[in-house]
Predict the structure.
Amino acid sequence: MKGSLIFFLFFYQAAWGQSGILHQYVQAALENNLSLKQKYSAYEKSEYEKKEARGQYYPNIRFHARYTVAEGGRTIDFPAGDLLNPVYQTLNVLTESENFPQINNQQFFFYRPNEQETKLQLIQPIFDPRIYFNSRIQDALNRVKKADLDTYKRFLVSEIQTAYYNYLKTVEILELYDQTMTLLKENLRVNEHLFENDKVTIDVVYRSGSELSNHEQRIAEARKFHRTTSAYFNFLMNRDLDAVILIDSAIQSDVSVPGLQELITRALSGREELKALENFQEVTDYREKMNKSNKLPKLLGAVDYGIQGVDYHLSPDDDFFLASLVMQWDLFAGLQNNARIQQARLDREMISYQWDEVQQQIALEVIEQYFDLQATFERIRANRAELLALRKAFQIIQRKYSEGQANLLEFIDARTSMTQAEQNLILTRYDYLIRYVALERVACLYPLDSSNE
């Protein structure tokens, strides 16, 4: 169908013009829903992961202090006597004295009994492609978390509206049942009066009482659904399950639904699932590039400044300074890097297939919801026409029954048919609202930018 299809929506205000209680409920849910808060925490965590990755660009400065007490261990033998005693002996002979005594060979422990080293160390990456690519990967993963957050926000908006309409549905059904209960009680009272005056037989009274009892059962069932829908709505709002839900009188408006092709276009350009896949594709690209960069050398600079010695002294003889330029080059790693490159390529290929599949699924979702909405709209028109006819028929039968020209079965059948038609119209109207909400979600019609970020 070309152009824009106009659906006259009987109790709904479009999301972009939404106001009143329902809009406030949606905003409150976006602030208070516990599952959404978990999504926010996951997104905030990814923000810090991104900052952590960027922090690898900056120097790492650390304070290092070591004090060692050692005993025993390896020794170093120094042949001092073997080297110097022949010389000393010759000198004694030449000087005709004993001024140069003989000495023994020396032995030193490898570890000194006491030793300390206290220093500041600075390490600065100079060339390491892995830092750049890892930072880009974390950026893309952060956007994936944002898309996941927005996906749940869109789902939550849809759930809140659907739960609210389901609740309103039970409210109207109960109001209808209460009206019918009044009618049945009055019918029973009249029949009892007629029986007392010998106008009808007792079976008419019994039948009226039976109809009243059956209707009470239907009311009990409707109240159960009323409680469960109310509790689920409050659960989504993170409120007390018995909290009062206000009725929004502002949800009465017509809404213009764009044409099918425009809806599909909006869905394919706005769905967060596709945005997440785009960023996953970017992640696989950077992972492949990062693994390829592992074939390049890494270069970093290191600077140490501190003091060394047996004891702690702050003097020019105790401090030291050390600067290093370090290159690391992995020449062979058991073909692990090539395997990681192939894995990244296969991941990119799978995401490409998944992209095409998700696009088709999204288009299919839009088509299904669009035509479901259209069919529901046609059912509303049919139900309204049916209800109008059945109301007129019931008025005629009711008048005949009161005049004794129609029997009880005819009256009950006319009343039951009218009540069923009224119930069908209520259900169909709210089904239309719920189907519009579903179309709104799959086609990205609800502007998330208007919600709290």
Q: What stands out?
A: Residues 1-19 have pLDDT under 50 and may be disordered. The two ends are 36 Å apart (CA to CA).
